[in-house]
Amino acid sequence: MYNLIKKILFRFEPETIHHQVMKGLQILHGLPLGKKLIRSFCQPATGLERQLWGLTFKNPVGLAAGFDKDARYTDALACLGFGFVEIGTVTPVAQPGNDQPRLFRLPADKALINRMGFNNGGAVAAAKRLHKRSSDIIIGGNIGKNKITPNEDAISDYEKCFHALFDVVDYFVVNVSSPNTPNLRALQEKEPLKQLLHHLQTLNNLKIKSKPILLKIAPDLTDSQLDDIIEIVRETKLAGLVATNTTISRENLATPDSEIAAIGAGGLSGLPVRERATEVIRYIHKSSGGSIPIIAVGGIFTAEDAQEKLDAGASLVQIYTGFIYEGPTIVKKICKGLK
């Protein structure tokens, strides 16, 4: 059924149809029998709870950051069966992001290329929406810096986001690995990253009850850089990692080179990232002796894909591109397979 619907949806511009479909889901969710109808089709099997960081995840399948940037749809997404939803990336001040078009489908590869550029309404606006939510789904807050903020002032941006979201999210993810904000990935270098994370952990420790802070890393890091990440996680006592973000690689794609060239810059997600994301997870898990909790993201479409990530050392998984290609019952199908 969804394959037929997908053919229709894929005739429309990706970003436009994304917002239209989500608004439709939100309207359905608000109808008297809407929640019950959605749950009847999408709710996954029970018995897959996970305990991590003192939090209870109803199941290990979450929604990755980038899908619900402004925390507009968390209640409706909870009805689709997700074990957790990561909102953002949010920045201190609202920004429009990069020029459109900035989201592209690669159906031959079951992939997407995006160069959204942290388009969002700002951390304070997202926090206000989260204050009003009715579901108890676990929420992650993915935070970044504004495009116009120079790297030497980036710490201030992350601090503002941290304070704005602290009371309304269950964990934080520090995003320094998006390829779509100029010079952002330079913050992954050892010294600036240590400085940023030490500062956030200092703020975190001043709270009555601290929140887990994770770091989202790129799949394009070398083994040496991953070793540095492991050292930084230990030194700053981070709660864990999200592995991985989108890739700047364009290797081994079925989509014609001319089409890829016409699309231009952006982060690639979906099936082509699956193998590399698993390699990164396996390397971190093995090199750290399994001491670093990992949320896996990258090319997860099926229960087998999710199990591959869990077997590699992940504690939880997230989907994004797979959600678009497989449809609203994907969590139910993955959980059924895992069980």
TrEMBL record:
Q: State which gene encodes it.
A: pyrD
The protein's annotated catalytic reaction(s) are: (S)-dihydroorotate + a quinone = orotate + a quinol
Residues that bind FMN: A65, G66, F67, D68, K69, T89, N142, N175, K216, T244, G270, G299, Y320, T321
Q: Which cofactor does it need?
A: FMN
**Coiled coil spans:** none
One term of GO molecular function: dihydroorotate dehydrogenase (quinone) activity
- State any GO BP term from the record: 'de novo' pyrimidine nucleobase biosynthetic process
What does this protein do, in the record's words?
Catalyzes the conversion of dihydroorotate to orotate with quinone as electron acceptor.
Q: Which domain of life is it from?
A: Bacteria
Q: Which organism is it from?
A: Chitinophaga tropicalis
Q: Where does this protein hold substrate? A: K69, N114, R115, M116, G117, F118, N175, N180, N245, T246
Record's protein name: Dihydroorotate dehydrogenase (quinone)
Q: How does it assemble?
A: Monomer.
Q: To which protein family does this belong?
A: Belongs to the dihydroorotate dehydrogenase family. Type 2 subfamily.
Q: Keywords of this protein's UniProt record, alphabetized?
A: Cell membrane, Flavoprotein, FMN, Membrane, Oxidoreductase, Pyrimidine biosynthesis
Listed GO CC annotations: cytoplasm; plasma membrane
According to the entry, what is the taxonomic lineage of the organism? Bacteria, Pseudomonadati, Bacteroidota, Chitinophagia, Chitinophagales
Residues annotated as domain Dihydroorotate dehydrogenase catalytic: 48-339
Primary localization class, coarse: membrane
